[in-house]
User: Fold these one by one.
Assistant:
Number 1:
Amino acid sequence: MATTARNQLRFITEEDKTAAEAQVRELQTDVDYETKEYTVELIVQKYLEGEPEDANELFVPTYQRDFVWHPDRQSKFIESVMLGLPIPYVFTASLAKDIDSDEGRVEIVDGSQRIRTLAAFLNDELILDGLEKLSKLNGFRFSDIELSRQRKFKRRPIRVIELSEKATESVRRDIFERINTGSDELRAMEKRKGIFTGPFYDFIAECAALPLFNEVCPISYRKQRREEAEEMVLRYFAYADRYEQFNHSVRSFLDSYLKEHQHKFDKEKLLSRFVSMLEFVRDNFPFGFRKSPTNSSVPRVRFEAISVGVTLALQKYPELNASKQDIADWLASEEFSKHTVSDASNSRPKVKARIEFVRDQLLRG
């Protein structure tokens, strides 16, 4: 007997077992790797030497996320290294190149935050803070520590798993995704950046960087570092195209849409539609997507309702001329507030209701 994904028991036959084993054999990946140990000093050297020219031996690939660890998180990591506590392996991959172009470079598959934290600390760019066990080190830079302790810290070992040249980019991305699944370190859009690199993701990032978007939909610096702007833009395009097909899972809905459009989409058409929507919001909504002029951020459900609702209305009447007072009135209404409460985000009927509420209010005016 076995339990299915929906926790329903079913009888497992010998044929089921054989089919399952065949699937494992077919899909399992034969990845060669070596386990290595580098000192802190050496791994930082491999990362920093040639880094400004993108010629460093140990480098961060484009599919990895930006550096986002808070200084307190960096300090905690340095404390762990200082105390000799176990830290996760760094995963790297030796890149396959032909003889003429082989530079012997190694890609960081997972662990770039740790390596960059070590580099920042050794370069006196990090001031330790928030330490509890080594509280006497709070306020210290690396150069403030006793010379003997500096030398011991530089000799601390960092364990590395280096994948062989047989590991394709697809395999490396798969490892990146699996290592970070369920981790608080990565939000959904940060994982997508690591997995779905390509023309459409680049287009999403371009839209998120538009001054007009940032004008009408302000996002805090902290959230920007976590790909929140890109998340909002992706939600806009996905819901505008197929909100009626949305099921209960936002993540799978967005992942599927992004994967499907990675290399096939009409950039000019989508950009024009996005900008037209932003211009309409700027010209007709009192505070853009914000609830009031004092709000410094925009809830996702509010952004989805307004942005997609506006787009649907403009698709029906491109020269739509709405009453600003009417818009202000229904934005302040109890009904709109009910449609855009935070717990509505994963409900298919509520997604449909809030989008169509905005559309219908605009068309009514």
Number 2:
Amino acid sequence: MMVSLHGGHSGQFCAHAGPWHAAEVLKPPPRAAGYHTYGVTEHAPRSEARFLYPEELELGWTTKTLADNFHAYAREAAALAQEFADRLTILCGFEIEVVPAREYAKLMSSLRHMYHFQYMVGSVHYVDEILIDGALSEFNRAVTHCGGVEPLAVRYYDAVAAMIEEMRPEVVAHFDLIRKNAPDEASVDSAKIRAAAERALAAVAAHGAILELNTAGYRKGLGRPYLAPWMLDRAREMNLPVCFGDDSHGPSDVGAGMNQARQYLLDHGIREITYLARERGKLVKRKAPL
């Protein structure tokens, strides 16, 4: 079964997603890719100007722009879900941001209740309020701030665990995103880092979250999805539920890497995915064979 619980980003609401309207991302591509269920999860708006991205500043966007865009996204996602209800299950959620550090939990919870989102995707794009998912210069600033790649990676996984404890998201996204800008695999795979990652995996288990296998890793040149082989093996040993996310930021990303990701799961002894389904007005977990 083709399912993605994380994706559907569009330039209409997200400056780094390219010049695509949400309808261009959501109408033909998921159906053409053979999806049964597609979760739309736009980024939550960042509430302070210091967290605006360079591309947003170039466009003249402000925090009000982000808030207005998010409001429009919530309406459009709900409308598209209704429009395609007989052909494709579209789930309406959002991807949380962990900034500002002291207030994000309250802000994210408020957004969920305000717009009646069905679920949250828990992501950590910042460590100590420094972006680790954007420009390499920002990642290097985080490395300097933490005193090296290893302590940065440990702090990253500690932040993932704390986010899960605080927010209890239904889905935990790109679990090892710290790999994206790291020099190589070895630099983020020490005993200390594994111990921190294990603590975060324990938080996934404790709160019953679904662990995302994020296919964007292929697009980012990692040669694998986000979930390093050892992490996927541990997820299997811990009986953690796993699902796909294409993390699409444009039509060509929809469904990209899914066949490779399916084989990746099979190669690591995983034979089923867990997804979210609407039943009697609620989202419930369901399993499907690969």
